[in-house]
Amino acid sequence: MSAPDGPSTDSFSTDDLPESGRVAMWREHFGRIALRVEIEPTEEGRFESCMTSRILPGLHLLFNRLSAARITRTRELIADGNDDFFMVVNRAGNISVAARGREVLLREGDALLSSSDEVTVFERCSDGASLLLRISRSILSSVDADVDGATMCVIPRQSEALKLLTSYTMALIGEHPLAAPPLQHLAVSHVSELVALTLGATRDAASTAMVQGLPAARLRAAKSYVVENCGRRNLSIGVVAAHVGVTPRYLQKLFEADGKTFSEWLLYQRLMRVHRMLCRSQFAGQTVSAIAYDAGFGDLSYFNRCFRKLYGVTPRDVKNSRYKMALERRSGATPADFREAAAK
């Protein structure tokens, strides 16, 4: 996610657009350009939307009221390479969400995490409202939550962490812009840690929260750097420590206090990167070994052992998955399409 020059908060409504071109203008600007999704109204002759948007470094917050519509992150659009995470908190009405061969229903107050590098369909059958948090992968990964494992799992509205996250985020949207960069980064850090708690990563998030002040900031900076550079085969704790401005031993202690050694955390990030690449159509022409090398692995036998231990299948099993091929053939997939693909 590219960060803007400074924080911004804006409100937009279809009421501000001429009725004749309202749907086309909204779909083009807020759909394909701003949000990189396809928006299709499902009530003939009627489309209404009103949104408030706030952008912070690595974090985009949106509160949206919307009439019945289908919103799709299509195979064509995921080719942009963006792999941010989306957390959708349903504030009113119901939303059907389909991805990874699953279809789930979000009732009022429920939430769900999805990834923008996967074909996903959101369908709202009646008027409703939702809160959307778009978080860069490097920032969310820095809190060490199992974000990939939590994707497409419903977070029930009874969750106390979800309630706290929702109220804090709504306050950020409603307040005046945070002009001071340290306050912006602090707000983003708070949101990412609340998301981690909401996803159920209580042990990891709690241990990170116990590392106070500057050490916590250094650990988050180190983890973000690893996520962004894990494909470099020469990436070492010495390289990361030099980037953060600490000694390798000090950084190793920070990782160990958080529950994983530096080597364990780097390995996990590389394996997740390989898994994402194997599941994306734009890498279909590459061999497993080429993808593994691109993710930073030099020893293929070691890579295969670690991959199978983490995911329970071989990399080739993931690459040749019948479900993945069925999913990729459906650039404009509907919930029914996903059910059909998953049943095969």
Task: Give a short summary of the structure.
The protein is α+β, with helices and mostly antiparallel strands. The chain has helices at 22-35, 137-141, 147-150, 160-174, 181-198, 202-210, 213-229, 237-244, 248-257, 262-278, 288-294, 300-311, 315-319, 322-328, 335-343, and strands at residues 8-13, 38-41, 49-56, 59-66, 69-73, 85-92, 95-99, 102-106, 111-115, 120-124, 128-135.
Q: Would you mind describing this structure in some detail?
A:
The protein has helices spanning 22-35, 137-141, 147-150, 160-174, 181-198, 202-210, 213-229, 237-244, 248-257, 262-278, 288-294, 300-311, 315-319, 322-328, 335-343, and strands at residues 8-13, 38-41, 49-56, 59-66, 69-73, 85-92, 95-99, 102-106, 111-115, 120-124, 128-135. The strands form 2 sheets. The protein has a 6-stranded antiparallel β-sheet. Strands 2-5-10-7-8 form a 5-stranded antiparallel β-sheet. The model is unreliable at 1-7, 201-212 and 322-344 (pLDDT under 50). The chain has 2 domains: 8-208, Jelly Rolls (Sandwich), CATH 2.60.120; 212-325, Orthogonal Bundle (Arc Repressor Mutant, subunit A), CATH 1.10.10. 46% of the residues lie in helices and 19% in strands. The longest helix has 18 residues, at 181-198. It has 15 helices and 11 strands. With 344 residues, the protein is α+β, with helices and mostly antiparallel strands.
Keywords:
single chain, 344 residues, alpha+beta, Jelly Rolls, Arc Repressor Mutant, subunit A, 2 domains, six-stranded antiparallel β-sheet, five-stranded antiparallel β-sheet, 15 helices, 46% helix, globular, disordered N terminus, disordered C terminus
